[in-house]
Design a protein that fits this description.
By secondary structure, the protein is an alpha+beta fold. It is about 25% helix and about 30% strand. It is globular, with a radius of gyration of 14 Å.
């Protein structure tokens, strides 16, 4: 994975939450301000619960959009009547 792909994802307007997938692991990015790519090509993600994750770009297998997950959760909690 290259940094350009991640920058394109976090630059979308409006921001679209996404998941970073590794071999057998993943991290969700829920806000553009929660992720940065450092000069040494490490990716840093900060979470609302004060935890964080750091990993190298070379570890990333894919990015996955989470919009459908959020829409499904919203409909579960706020069902719309016909």
């Amino acid at each position: 994975m290259d940094s350009k792909t991640i920058y394109e994802q976090i630059s979308k307007v409006p921001f679209e939450p996404f998941r970073i997938r590794f071999n057998g692991d993943s991290h969700d990015v829920l806000s553009a301000g929660a992720i940065t790519i450092q000069r040494n090509n490490n990716v840093f993600i900060a979470y609302a619960d004060q935890t964080w994750a750091v990993f190298g770009l070379e570890m990333i297998c894919s990015l996955e959009c989470l919009i459908s997950d959020f829409l499904a959760r919203d409909q579960e909690h706020n069902p719309r009547e016909p």
